[in-house]
Specification:
Helix content is 32%, strand content 35%. It contains four helices and seven strands; from the N terminus they run αβααββββββα. The chain has helices spanning 2-16, 43-51, 53-59, 143-168, and strands at residues 33-39, 64-71, 76-82, 87-96, 101-106, 115-127, 130-141. A seven-stranded antiparallel β-sheet has the order 1-7-6-5-4-3-2, covered by helices on one side. Helix 2 (43-51) crosses helix 3. The chain is globular. The N and C termini lie far apart (107 Å).
């Protein structure tokens, strides 16, 4: 009986001890690329473009020739083919429709030589009667490879900015005047 009482006393004393989880301080990410555009399109329409591979390809302004889903299971893998014949495998690691956020990382098996990791995020926010689209990218690797990939991503983002802007222009057919 003494062993049981001692055991219960020991269990209750252990559970009464307060423990606190330790979490490291948040660190600011130093992005290698931060590009922002504001377009005359509703935020939900912009989100729909980024959520549709077909529409996203059109929004690339010819820079992307195809977007193919390789694995639809999360994290979704896809192959991006470029008009210059190159391609990239990437994984959508986060897609939040309610926050209008997409996070994408380059596949471990298909990174350019000299690149340790590469990821980018797209943030879509309403800004008055316009929509803000922010691209942010982080690239880790040797300086030469990093510089080349950052230049490639900048060109890609610029093409998307031009394509999205073109998508806001609505062609209204001329009416005949008799």
């Amino acid at each position: 009986m003494k062993k049981i009482i001692l055991g219960l006393l020991l269990l209750t004393s252990v559970s009464a001890v307060k423990t606190y989880a330790q979490m490291g301080a948040a660190t600011k990410v130093n992005w290698d690329i931060e590009k922002n555009i504001e377009i005359n399109m509703e935020m939900d329409l912009v989100w729909d473009i980024f959520a549709s591979n077909e529409q996203l390809q059109k929004a690339s302004n010819g820079y992307v020739s195809a977007i193919e889903v390789v694995d639809p299971n999360f994290p979704m893998s896809r192959k991006i083919s470029f008009k210059n014949g190159g391609h990239r495998f990437e994984n959508i690691t986060q897609s939040e429709a309610h926050n209008k956020l997409i996070a994408i990382s380059f596949s471990d098996t298909d990174r350019p030589k000299g690149i340790k990791s590469a990821q980018y995020a797209i943030f879509i926010k309403a800004k008055g009667n316009q929509t803000s689209v922010m691209w942010r990218a982080k690239v880790d690797g040797n300086q030469e490879a990093k510089k080349a990939l950052v230049a490639q991503l900048n060109a890609e983002y610029d093409s998307y900015a031009q394509g999205l802007e073109k998508m806001t222009k609505k062609v209204i057919p001329a009416a005949r005047m008799n």
